[in-house]
């Protein structure tokens, strides 16, 4: 299992800065295979949980290289932030995805796509590269970005499977599974993000950028049927960054394992709790192990900083403990964790006040720091 604490994340970042960052823009599109990932950072499982904060990633890179040289890498880090903001201002996209997914899963058994679906998720389609990636994903919890694009394209256009089931297969297995990046990237490939624009994987492109690792010649779909496009209206997000000081309880959630002593100071009067907000029961073993180890490591770090954390096992335990008090948690963003938080908020008579601090506070801080360091170059 890949280590899940801050020090390992930091050492991966340092290694990438030393060996991969300089040539990132030229090399990033090549998937050299699982044994050779030095051309990309592999930091996504850490960034997703904020074990490594975007601010730290970017400022560390800018200490060594100037902006022009590493602009592409910085852009990629901000893609994640962009997708998150896009989904926040169109929450219906997540709701529709979950509704469609639930219907598809309910109807899957005995349906005419069941066989093809089973072949795809068990690496038995006969398409050599696709089966390789399907196996790599379930065994390692990671796929290179280009392979994610090819995989999604083949899933949708060659195998004719519903994109929602593919996004769910990724969500189950990716260590970096993120509601925004994952759902929106799958929508983008299938042509639902930008009207009339799909991503069609081409054989020559796969050959070149996977360094001719696959022997079989495959015929992939050259045409596609456009899916019904639905426009989602932009709605402004209103984050009040509610109450901040002297809060009774601070609830840690798995999307915000932020290793920052200054954050601890803000909550020095609060009692720390942890509750697993991810109400999604299908995570792969490797993903579950990584997630629980990441939480454990974070709780240990808090202990080293003299903060005891009470691990809460279910809603009732949380309700009876927090009853009548105020509880604050870092905003987890649209996704399963936020759905769970909304469910808890609805149980108002038991937990009277749940507040969230929005990560914009951190992102704002990050932008500030980045622009400051750019000005100094
Ligand atoms: C179909 C599909 C599904 C995806 N699902 C996810 C997901 O669930 N979670 C996720 O974090 N990324 C997802 N991505 C984006 C991207 O593939 C991964 O972030 C990237 O491959 C992670 O590897 P890395 O850390 O080595 O990336 P690097 O190339 O080293 O990039 C550095 C960081 O920038 C961010 N980043 C890079 N590319 C993207 C991108 N296209 N979109 C958003 N952020 C990006 C990540 O945080 C990444 O760690 C998906 C892409 C596709 C095409």
CATH class of the largest domain: Mainly Alpha
Tell me roughly what share of residues is in helical segments. Answer: 40-55%
Q: How many beta-strand segments?
A: 5
Percent of residues in beta strands = 5-15%
Total number of helices: 17
CATH-derived architecture of the largest domain: Orthogonal Bundle
Largest sheet: 5 strands, parallel
Q: What does this molecule look like?
A:
- It is a single chain.
- By secondary structure, the protein is an alpha/beta fold.
- It folds into three domains: 6-87, Alpha Horseshoe (Serine Threonine Protein Phosphatase 5, Tetratricopeptide repeat); 94-209, Orthogonal Bundle (DNA Cyclobutane Dipyrimidine Photolyase, subunit A, domain 3); 249-357, HUPs (Rossmann fold, 3-Layer(aba) Sandwich), CATH 3.40.50.
- The protein is 53% helix and 6% strand.
- It has helices spanning 6-19, 24-27, 44-49, 54-64, 67-88, 91-108, 114-121, 128-140, 145-158, 163-173, 179-190, 203-209, 261-266, 285-304, 315-322, 336-346, 360-375, and strands at residues 249-252, 271-275, 309-312, 326-330, 353-357.
- A five-stranded parallel beta sheet has the order 3-2-1-4-5.
- β1, α13 and β2 (271-275) form a beta-alpha-beta unit.
- The longest helix has 22 residues, at 67-88.
- The chain is globular, with a radius of gyration of 21 Å.
- The model is unreliable at 358-377 (pLDDT under 50).
- The protein binds flavin-adenine dinucleotide.
């Amino acid at each position: 299992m890949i280590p899940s604490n801050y020090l390992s994340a930091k050492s991966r970042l340092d290694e990438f800065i030393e060996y991969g960052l300089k040539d990132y823009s030229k090399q990033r599109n090549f998937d050299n295979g699982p044994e050779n990932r030095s051309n990309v950072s592999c930091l996504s499982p850490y960034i997703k949980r904020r074990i490594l904060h975007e601010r730290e990633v970017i400022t560390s890179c800018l200490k060594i290289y100037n902006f022009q040289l590493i602009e592409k890498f910085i852009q990629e880090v901000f893609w994640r932030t962009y997708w998150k903001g896009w989904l926040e201002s169109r929450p219906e996209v997540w709701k529709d995805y979950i509704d469609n997914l639930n219907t598809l899963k309910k109807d899957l058994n005995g349906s005419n796509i069941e066989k093809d679906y089973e072949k795809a998720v068990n690496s038995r389609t006969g398409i050599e590269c696709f089966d390789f990636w399907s196996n790599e994903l379930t065994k390692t919890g990671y796929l290179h970005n280009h392979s994610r694009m090819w995989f999604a394209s083949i899933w949708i256009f060659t195998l004719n499977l519903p994109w929602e089931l593919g996004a769910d297969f990724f969500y189950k297995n990716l260590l970096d599974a993120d509601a925004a990046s994952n759902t929106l990237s799958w929508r983008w490939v299938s042509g639902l993000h930008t009207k009339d624009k799909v991503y069609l994987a081409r054989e020559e492109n796969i050959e070149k950028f996977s360094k001719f690792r696959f022997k079989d010649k495959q015929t992939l779909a050259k045409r596609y049927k456009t899916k019904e496009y639905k426009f989602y209206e932009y709605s402004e997000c209103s984050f009040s960054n509610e109450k901040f000081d002297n809060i009774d309880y601070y609830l840690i959630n798995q999307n915000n394992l932020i290793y920052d002593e200054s954050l601890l100071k803000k909550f020095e009067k609060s009692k720390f709790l942890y509750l697993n907000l991810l109400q999604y029961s299908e995570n792969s073993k490797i993903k579950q192990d990584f997630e629980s180890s990441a939480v454990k490591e974070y709780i240990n770090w808090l202990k080293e900083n003299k903060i005891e954390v009470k691990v809460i096992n279910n809603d009732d335990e949380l309700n009876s403990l927090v009853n009548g008090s105020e509880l604050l948690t870092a905003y987890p963003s649209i996704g399963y964790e936020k759905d769970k938080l909304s469910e808890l908020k609805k149980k108002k008579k038991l937990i009277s006040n749940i507040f969230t601090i929005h990560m914009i506070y951190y992102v704002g801080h990050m932008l500030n720091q980045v622009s400051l360091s750019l000005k100094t170059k």
